[in-house]
Amino acid sequence: MAAFDVVVLGGGTAGVHVATEVAGGGKTVALVEAGLIGGESAYLACLPSNSLLLSAARGEPWEDAVARRTEVTGGLDDSAPAQRLRRAGVQVIRGTGRITAPGTVAVKLLPGGLGGAVLPPGGSGGMVPPGREGASRALAQDADQPAAAGGTASRVMTLTYSDLVIATGCEPVAPPIEGLSDIPAWTTAQGLSSRDLPRRLIVLGGGPAGCELTQVYASFGSQVTLVEAEPRLLPGEPAFAGEILAVALRRAGAEIRLGSRATKAERTADGLTLALEDGTQIDAARLLLASGRRPRLGGLGLDVLGLEVTPGMALPTTTRCVVAGTGGRVWAAGDVTGTTHTHASHYQASVVAANILGRHREADYSAIPRCVFTTPSVFAVGAVPGGAEESAESTGAGSTPGGSAGAGGSAGAGDGNGAEHGPGNGARTRRMLRIARAPSAEAADAAEAEAPPAAQSAAALRLVTARVRLGDTARGYLGQDDLGCLELYADAGTGVLAGAVAVGPDAASWMGEVTLAIRAKIPVAVLADVVHAFPTYGEALQTALRELAGTAGSAARADQQEKRTGTLSELDMETPEGDAIEQHQEVIADEAVASARREVPFDVNEADAAEQERAVGFDDDDYR
Ligand SMILES: Cc1cc2nc3c(=O)[nH]c(=O)nc-3n(C[C@H](O)[C@H](O)[C@H](O)COP(=O)(O)OP(=O)(O)OC[C@H]3O[C@@H](n4cnc5c(N)ncnc54)[C@H](O)[C@@H]3O)c2cc1C
Fold this sequence. Notes:
Strand content: 15-25%
Helix content: 25-40%
Strand order of the largest sheet: 1-6-5-4-3-2-7-18
Number of domains: 3
CATH superfamily of the largest domain: FAD/NAD(P)-binding domain
CATH class of the largest domain: Alpha Beta
Radius of gyration: 26 Å
Distance between the termini: 61 Å
CATH architecture of the largest domain: 3-Layer(bba) Sandwich
CATH topology of the largest domain: FAD/NAD(P)-binding domain
Bound molecules: flavin-adenine dinucleotide
Number of strands: 24
């Protein structure tokens, strides 16, 4: 038995960061890791994915890309990060941890579990056998077995803690497809660590990972078919993002099949055949599963802490990252809480560490970026129209100044925005939506008297949208960007930015200011006065912000008329108490409007905008 102030279960992004911070703060810390120190991101997810995407964008051959990927993932050798942890004062214990009583964790040690670096079971870097639900689940199942203390292969070490941190990440879930376990299939981890370049590949799932891997393999010459059951890619984001990405992936040579579920898989001499519910049969050498993940909670012994966990559910946490219902000394960070990005894991880990060290800190989830690192990339942050939470009164739909009725008509189910969500829309779109975000962590511990994270966004938002095509900026024109598009969403009630989605080159790098603006609740009127360098994509932000503030060129003039007679008056009637546009129109003098117009690089009157749109030549079919 070994006693620690803090035991951290899981040594991925979140676990490593918490452990390092609290050890630095003087606590005794044990970190228990069943696989690789550093977790998914460093070896099997973000880094290899981005490495391959960058190699593809540079036009490197597959062999060079694989060599570079091996270099950036350190050949799946985690001895250096393990050493860093030890130097930071953290006791690294390699094995599978399970809570056996409040205050106690039993670790089924891997061979060499207290010593140097070892590869995870099977030496596979935590990869998942096809058709199973994940290596860590297998690990968790192992942990369910009674461990015989003292044996070589199954020695058990007991740890006690004052604070427990659960940072066990998430795991892929196999979709219900008949015959899946009989065919050659990869998880994303396997797809990102293989040297094999399949001649024909089916990617199942059109979320961020599915889109990135489709672009990777299509770019290196595989004949890729992406299958997504929903009617669009990136179903969680506004439709235009997935529609543009579909065009980009098709241009990269991939076939995109939307709106039909895979039902049956059969092994063939050359690989497999996948049947879709619409009757389509697709042949491939391999299937790559990117169709869903879930928090990795099985076998952790959470019931011992009085927690009932339904498979697929995230651990409910408070804003301080306390696991709700545990009384305050059990914390969680990372994917296990339902977040899905490395930076979110890192952020929550900082919050956990601060609280353990006695510095009260609460997480703010209003501006956590969501990224897809394809070309063009997709960057989303904050609230967006549509989505599951929308109680959706679309009060402004249909009023689309300058809009064309064309390509946007492909909006998918659940979008809630009718025909307005398409890259073929006019340069300017205004919509107002009511978004009600239901608090999801009902189990929040009342005794802790804290709001769960979801409750932070529970207030109804009334979103006003401004859209700008990147091709309408000088930078986009120079770069011949016919796909890029930006939407900003302001809350009409408060006059601050609530969310944004950008599709374009390296969008994360020029959307940082939007993230800051949402997090810091900077008024749109202030943002609209920020000067952006010419010629950059920042000018798209400038145009959109000025539109939101009611100051952009002809839109401003139109707005001023509409203020009394037109569309905006109707919108104002919906929200008389706090229309941001109205407020900002009052704030900004005519002179400022005039100078704003002078700074617009091109004359963007409606006729020109329509002309540009025709020149770009979006094909309706591309968006369906
Ligand atoms: C294909 C793909 C690409 C991605 N790309 C990006 C990207 O570009 N940018 C981005 O921000 N995010 C990306 N992500 C998401 C990112 O990888 C995760 O958000 C991040 O790794 C989560 O970190 P974590 O610490 O919560 O979990 P993990 O990194 O998964 O760490 C959890 C650790 O816990 C260990 N463990 C589990 N159970 C036990 C147990 N019982 N005992 C001991 N140890 C245990 C596991 O072995 C694992 O190492 C991507 C994900 C995927 C799948």
